[in-house]
Amino acid sequence: MNHTDSVQLAQLLHQANPRRRPQFLINCQHLTCLQTQGVSYLVSQLLLTKHAGADILLYNVNAVLGSALRLLHLQQVFQVLPPII
């Protein structure tokens, strides 16, 4: 998500194979948009990407983002994986 338009990529991948949803594995530890634009921007981009046809898997979710996802009931929309060491 730092260097790619995830919405456009999801649309292209979904159009290439509409019977299979692409899965995006996102390392939240290194997201510059989370640090520069905040949780609400990241959540909006994730929702747009999901709407474009991709499943979202998040890992290395920090406490602030994890709390926001729980408060917004988005842990049901995005799969949050345990930290990968």
Which key terms come to mind for this protein?
85 residues; single chain; 45% helix; alpha/beta; three-stranded parallel beta sheet; 3 strands
How would you describe what is shown here?
It is a single chain. It is built from four helices and three strands; from the N terminus they run H-E-H-H-E-H-E. It has 85 residues and is α/β, with parallel strands linked by helices. A three-stranded parallel β-sheet has the order 1-2-3, with helices on one face. Strand 2 (55-59), helix 4 (63-71) and strand 3 (79-80) form a beta-alpha-beta unit. The model has no long low-confidence stretch (mean pLDDT 89).
Quick summary:
The chain is built from 4 helices and 3 strands.
Mean pLDDT: 89
Residue stretches low in confidence (pLDDT < 50, at least 5 long) are: none
For the CA atoms, what is the radius of gyration? 13 Å
Secondary structure: helix percent = 40-55%
**Backbone shape:** globular
The assigned structural class equals: alpha/beta
The overall strand count is 3
In terms of DSSP E residues, the strand content is: 5-15%
